Amino acid sequence: MRVFDLEGAVRQARTGNVPPGWQLLPLKASQAWTNAILGPILVIAFSIGNLIHGLTANEVWAPDIVFSIFGDNNVLGILVGETVVFFIAGIAFGVLAVRSMGPILHRADYFLLITPDGFVEAQGAKVQGAAFADVTGMNLGNNVVAGIAVRGRGALQVWVNKYGKAQELFAELYGRAQAATRG
Fold it and tell me: Can you give the pTM of this predicted structure?
C-alpha cells in the first residue's frame, strides 16, 4: 500500500490554499439545502394530500397498523391514526433536517480534494480517501455515488454529485487511478 497522508491533505485543504495541481471541490450549497428541506416538505405534502383525499373520497391509505387499531370502516379514526403516523414521520425527517444543518453552517468542512497522489473526502470530522495507486476498481452507481475499491481496506463510497457533475468527477478520479496503477 502506498502512503498517502489523508489528515495532512485535509489540514492543507482547510487552510483554503492548495498547491497547484490539487482540486478543492466544496460541498455544493444546493445539495446541502436540498438534503435539509426536501424530506420534511415531502412528508408534509404527502400528509396533507392524503388527508384531503381521505376526507373527499371517504377512503384512506394508511399503514396496516392503523387499520388494526381503528378497524377497516372507521374512516375518521383512520385519518386521525394516519395523521399521527405521518406526524411521527415528520418529526423523524425534521430530526434529519436538523442534522443536515451541519453541512450548511460549516460548508468549509465538507469537500472533495483531488491531489496528484490521491483523493480525500471530508464530511466534518469524518475523513475518507486513498492513494490512487491503491485503488483496485471503481464504478459510478446511479450517476451519483462512486464506489471505490481500495487495496487492503475494502470499498469507499464517495457521493460525487455533492461536489460537482458526477460523471466528470468520476472520470477525473478514474483516470488518475488508472494512470497511477500503470505507472
Answer: 0.70
